[in-house]
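Data availability (excerpt). All sequences and predicted token strings are deposited with the supplementary files. A representative entry, Glycine/D-amino acid oxidase-like deaminating enzyme, is shown inline so that the format can be inspected without opening the archive.
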Amino acid sequence: MNSPSFWLSSLGPIERRPPLAGDLAADVAIAGGGYTGLWTAYYLARADPSKRVVILDAEFCGFGASGRNGGWASGLFPVPEAKLARRFGPDAAAAMHRALGDTVDEIGRVAAAEGIDCDYAKGGTLSLVRSPAQLRRAQRDPGFVDAATATAMCHATDVLGGIYSEHCAALHPAKLVRGLAATVERLGVTIHESTRAEQIRTGQIKTLRGTVHAPTIVRALEGYTAGLAGHRRDIAPVYSLMIVTEPLPEEFWQRVGLARRETFTDERRLVIYGQRTADDRLAFGGRGAPYHFGSKIRPEYDLVPEVFEALRATITELFGIDPLIAHRWGGPLGIPRDWMPSVGLRDGIAWAGGYVGDGVAAANLAGRTLADLILGVDSDLTRLPWVGHRSRRWEPEPARWLGINAGLRATALLDALERRRAA
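Structure token line:
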């Protein structure tokens, strides 16, 4: 089994739900028990309690990215609004970003309404500007704030400014996914764990334990999509890794801030991301782990010592401390060829995903959208530009391996060159 995240470990032993025990009939069958599958089931059950909804997961709900991520419920979308506007028009682009911003509040609303204690705190997100090159880029952003304002939120080293957005909440991702699973069960949804979807086709999900037949099938596998028959080139599973410190003393937080649990990053190109947890740890992650040939996903890929060391060193660089690290983990996220997440329903098969690491809020929006599509509701959500989008497939190997890893190396090199020039 993959190394568990700190989030999952902090909740104690996992008690798995029973696996599928033979063929089954349903109205909606969902492959994947992460945020996308659970939110879809939640909104379906709330809208039409008579529908028989079944969720299948290869391991347990939240085993994948939903239980391993950085805990940012953010309004970030991997395609910039200007690029969306060129393709879909300015109104559609604005609607997409506005819907994601509103989704941050929707997650908080549902968590409160359903009694899901997931340490939700909407403090916004701050991207620190820490070099002249970053400053030149950041000053063009409408969310730009000066050095004094940025430092007041997050007192890191060498801060020249920042980009702030209110559309982000920090949360405990495993508490959210576990609470969602319990909630949908209470609403009548059936969950079968330890049941891997081997094949999806119109009207059925085939597993080694039986086949679930349903007029609507939902593929909600995110980075694990590549392991499904016929989908190896649809999504590239690229690893993101995380560390979490032991609880840090009050004097550290008095100096650093993050008083409203603002999530934070900086303007380097190779993504990093952090949050102050509810129990005063730093949870900190980033990219840099290699993509593996053939879109393979294996437990040993979760642990890359040099990436963990780089993350620890970045905490030292940012905050001048050398903290005790309590936990290290990783996992794959799903990247489509054009970095454009999508939601859709065609010929009885629905799908959502390709969130490029910004899936905590996007999965909620996707679940609401899929519920409307499945129920035949024409809404503002079903007219968003990601609905029905189809990314072109990734190149065959070895081109895929060469291209993705070359891109990772080039990104790291550009950051290193900027740091040298700033020194």
